[in-house]
Amino acid sequence: MASIVNPTVRRRRLGQELRRLRELKGMTAEEVAERLLVSQSKISRLENGRRSISQRDVRDLCGVYEVEDHRIVDSLMQMAKDSRQQGWWHAFGDIPYSVYIGLETEAASLRIYESLLVPGLLQTPGYAEAVIPGTVPELAPDHLEKRIQVRMRRQERVNDPERPLRLWVVLDESALRRVVGSHLIMREQLDHLVEMSNLPHVTIQILPYGTGAHAGMSGTFSILEFDDASDSSVVYIEGVTSDLYLEKTNDVHKYTIMYEHLRAQALSAEQSREFIAVAAKSHADAMG
To answer: Which residues form a coiled coil (predicted)?
Structure first.
């Protein structure tokens, strides 16, 4: 469920406001860093919301930007305080993609293109238990259990009774054919996809092998959008050692156009539902 105070989103909003104040002052990040005797990378990380920000950081930056309105300073200080609270995911320890979880928890809509596996928000427990150690082969057993628990908890956001996540997934056929775990696990997983695709706020489209070359062959990605006008859309690209978050308008626009091409090339929602059902039957048949 969405948190009352989402620390990831608060950091992001605070960073955007601090960047705006810096630009109004006509200063570069390098100039601010020199004034505060810190690295330029720290200023950049504070502004893009990827680093925890303290009230002292806010006070120092407001001093450099000569912000005289105490109401603005107090508001920013409160945002800094809120941003240091812990989201529900922190209870599970060090999660490598915690920034993404914070954004996903707050998002109003999420568009996903996935080429090799079923997205985490749509995975069954059995599929998750098989795919996580397959993709992270040296993961310790206790960490595996935590990741499965986090993945299942994330799924609550899809069916939040007060604000269900608008989910649109374009999925390559290979994710349906690859046997993750066993044919039984795959049959259960694909039956679950059919069930989820019947929800009014969930759309699943399949890109069959016969589609040939398509716009997503350069890699998977997700596009997160938010209700609050102050929160710009984010393109998320998962990496092995680090993740990429694209927020510039031009970057988001390019990926949005790419996603529109993928949706146009994929089977319709109804055709995809039938396609998934046939693939589920093939796994059932393979079980003998």
So the answer is: none
